[in-house]
């Protein structure tokens, strides 16, 4: 008997050129580099240029992932873009990415789960592969999240950045005696009763505007560590592995204190935790694939490694995915 598994063929990322440091931000809003680093561990973030849209960031990350995989757009059947900041209310950013890659076949759609978007998209891609709807899926997390910020609100504007990351998943048939690889297990959760703890006060159906980010920071913090660790344990349980088996933990990069808290609660050594929040800030759905790309490019994540992805965000939504690289 054969088993279809979704394996990782390649990863890639893109960051806009412009870097905004905490010190620069402190010139326009009442904050300081010290406060930001101490509370959330962020030093700087990238900001998309005027006229540079989410689909542009996504295409750049997609091209990097295709190069990394040695594939072309002709080899892709499905594009999923996880984003909260699409270029337009519709069509989906994913169809714009499809057009910009010159892809005239297959299908493409966006997925909205805010900061958990990439983990949701990876899980959705895995299901599509296992159901035979697609063989190779380009999964992208892309955001111009800073366009949702009120730059006079110091409680939110210091936290976020722009960027994109991509991963190509491919369905392969494992022979009976072949060891498991690719996506081994995932778990997704949401609880809409927390919607107003982290939300944007606008939308096509309510105000007709894009709106700005609002957050009850301490409430988000209070829920984050428990929800993250619960879903990581649920994923491990499904796969039969334990925390001790993990080679790498690649969490959503929202906040160094949340990452450290989750790592400590899981009992993970800090050297197994991939952290890029200091240089990327919170890029929402882009943060996990951006961190993955860094750790693959610098040689930390290698074929055969056991990698746990995790994210939590607005909704609340949260989820985790375990991958044998
Ligand atoms: N610079 C300086 N002072 C600030 C800033 C800032 N950027 N932001 C808030 N403050 C002030 C507040 O005004 C307040 O001042 P006051 O006491 O005079 O009223 C003081 O700092 C403390 O405010 P709190 O909100 O209680 O600060 P807290 O210690 O909770 O830290 C923070 C705020 C860092 C946002 C924290 O709640 C947190 O980390 N929450 C998680 C939020 C998060 O990570 N969100 C990302 C999106 S969600 C996700 O992706 C999981």
TrEMBL record:
Residues 109-192 form the Beta-ketoacyl-[acyl-carrier-protein] synthase III N-terminal domain. One of its GO terms (biological process) is fatty acid biosynthetic process. Signal peptide: none annotated. It comes from the Bacteria. Gene3D superfamilies: 3.40.47.10. InterPro entries: ACP_syn_III_C, ACP_syn_III_N, FabH, Thiolase-like. Pfam families: ACP_syn_III, ACP_syn_III_C. Keywords: Acyltransferase, Cytoplasm, Fatty acid biosynthesis, Fatty acid metabolism, Lipid biosynthesis, Lipid metabolism, Multifunctional enzyme, Transferase. One of its GO terms (molecular function) is 3-oxoacyl-[acyl-carrier-protein] synthase activity. Its main location: cytoplasm. It catalyses: malonyl-[ACP] + acetyl-CoA + H(+) = 3-oxobutanoyl-[ACP] + CO2 + CoA. The active site is at 115, 252, 282. Its EC number is 2.3.1.180. PANTHER family: 3-OXOACYL-[ACYL-CARRIER-PROTEIN] SYNTHASE 3 (PTHR34069), BETA-KETOACYL-[ACYL-CARRIER-PROTEIN] SYNTHASE III (PTHR34069:SF2). Homodimer. This is Beta-ketoacyl-[acyl-carrier-protein] synthase III. It comes from Devosia crocina.
């Amino acid at each position: 008997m054969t088993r279809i598994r979704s394996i990782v063929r390649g990863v890639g990322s893109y960051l806009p050129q412009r870097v905004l440091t905490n010190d620069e931000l402190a010139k326009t809003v009442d904050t300081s580099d010290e406060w930001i680093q101490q509370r959330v561990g962020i030093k700087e973030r990238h900001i998309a240029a005027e006229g540079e849209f989410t689909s542009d960031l996504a295409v750049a990350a997609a091209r990097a992932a295709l190069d990394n995989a040695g594939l072309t757009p002709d080899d892709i059947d499905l594009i999923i873009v996880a984003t909260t900041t699409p270029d337009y209310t519709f069509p989906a950013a994913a169809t714009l990415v499809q057009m910009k890659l010159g892809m005239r076949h297959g299908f493409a759609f966006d997925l909205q789960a805010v900061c958990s978007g990439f983990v949701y998209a990876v899980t959705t891609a895995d299901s599509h592969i296992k159901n035979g709807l697609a063989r190779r899926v380009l999964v992208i997390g892309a955001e111009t999240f800073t366009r949702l910020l009120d730059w006079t609100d110091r409680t939110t504007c210091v936290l976020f950045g722009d960027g994109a990351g991509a991963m190509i998943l491919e369905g392969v048939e494992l022979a009976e005696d072949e060891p498991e690889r690719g996506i081994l297990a995932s778990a997704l959760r949401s609880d809409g009763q927390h919607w107003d703890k982290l939300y944007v006060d606008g939308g096509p159906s309510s105000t007709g505007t894009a709106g700005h980010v609002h957050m009850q920071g301490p409430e988000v913090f209070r829920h984050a560590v428990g929800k993250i660790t619960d879903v990581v344990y649920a994923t491990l349980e499904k796969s039969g592995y334990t925390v001790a088996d993990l080679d790498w933990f690649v969490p959503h990069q929202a906040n160094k204190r949340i990452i450290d808290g989750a790592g400590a609660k899981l009992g993970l050594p800090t050297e197994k935790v991939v952290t890029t929040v200091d240089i990327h800030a919170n890029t929402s759905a882009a943060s996990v694939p951006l961190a993955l790309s860094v750790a693959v490019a610098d040689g930390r994540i290698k074929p055969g490694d056991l990698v746990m992805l995790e994210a939590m965000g607005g909704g609340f939504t949260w989820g985790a995915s375990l991958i044998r690289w």
